[in-house]
């Protein structure tokens, strides 16, 4: 059987120039009119393959370019008219975003311009953040914290052009928006025993918070001319989701209807409204298949499992990847080499007390 449609050559034959171009396209956005609106990228690799390192470095490079032709940008990737994009980093109990505190940032990225950092968590959750210093957990002090009460409140206190580490509420309940959404998806009438009434208090896994946020952002965009005075103008946002399978779980997970409908419908809108998603996962099969099909770019890192139904990249090529090198592939077949460096003086992993 012919193998002409798959890659079986050596790593040296993979173009670094194409890799750089594809990477630039994933981290650069405009107003959506020139084909560089929001996009979706998934990074695949096992523990220690460099997923988090690549995500941390990507956060510093993400930007948007008003009124620029994309071909001009590839000739000059550092134009004067570029703006840092607002980033949302999904906060986790054990995490690495502490590299962005001013003290750590200066040590790890001495030549980079610092992006403002804010950590937002639900009022009343009482989260505490610790960093291992010399083997002893020490409270992280140089952080701008904000305790939000609602999605609206959180959104209006995000740092525009900065890094916003967001922790969903420990206890999350369906909002009226999500109740209506779930009723509509399932075509439930008020007589149906599964119908969710507005007065019902429904506790759900807190990954559902991200769907509430996405629907909120799409709704703002659709009605921006009417409600602009009530909300800040955060028109370019990139979400960084580590362990993305927890947000886009496979079929039969809790609230499967919500995940399925989002993949079927609203995930398309994220591009139009200039929302980008940079997801990380150990294996692509851990993410719900309809969501996987909505990603336009794949980054294969060492130890990743090739996927013949999605990609032309062969396992033999992935097996040759050293740490610090990946293959970035645009859905449809174009691919190139992506190289990145270990972060200097990266602080030890942080731990969040009172958050599970």
Please explain how this structure is put together:
By secondary structure, this protein is α/β, with parallel strands linked by helices. α7 (209-222) runs parallel beside α9. 27% of the residues lie in helices and 22% in strands. The radius of gyration is 21 Å and the shape is globular. It has a ten-stranded mixed beta sheet with strand order 10-7-11-5-14-15-2-16-17-18. The protein has a four-stranded antiparallel beta sheet with strand order 6-19-8-9, with no helix packed on it. A three-stranded mixed beta sheet has the order 1-3-4. It has eleven helices and 19 strands. It has a single domain (15-353), classed as Rossmann fold, CATH 3.40.50. It has helices at residues 16-27, 51-61, 70-75, 102-108, 151-156, 176-185, 209-222, 224-227, 256-272, 289-292, 315-318, and strands spanning 28-29, 40-44, 63-64, 83-84, 86-90, 94-95, 117-122, 128-133, 136-139, 144-148, 163-167, 172-173, 203-204, 237-241, 275-281, 297-300, 325-330, 335-339, 350-353.
Strands across the major sheet, in which order? 10-7-11-5-14-15-2-16-17-18
Largest sheet: 10 strands, mixed
Q: Based on DSSP secondary structure assignment, what is the total number of beta strands?
A: 19
What is the N-to-C order of secondary-structure elements (H for helix, E for strand)? HEEHEHEEEHEEEEHEEHEHHEHEHEHEEE
- How big a fraction of the residues is strand? 15-25%
List the main descriptive attributes of the protein structure presented here.
alpha/beta, 356 residues, ten-stranded mixed sheet, single chain
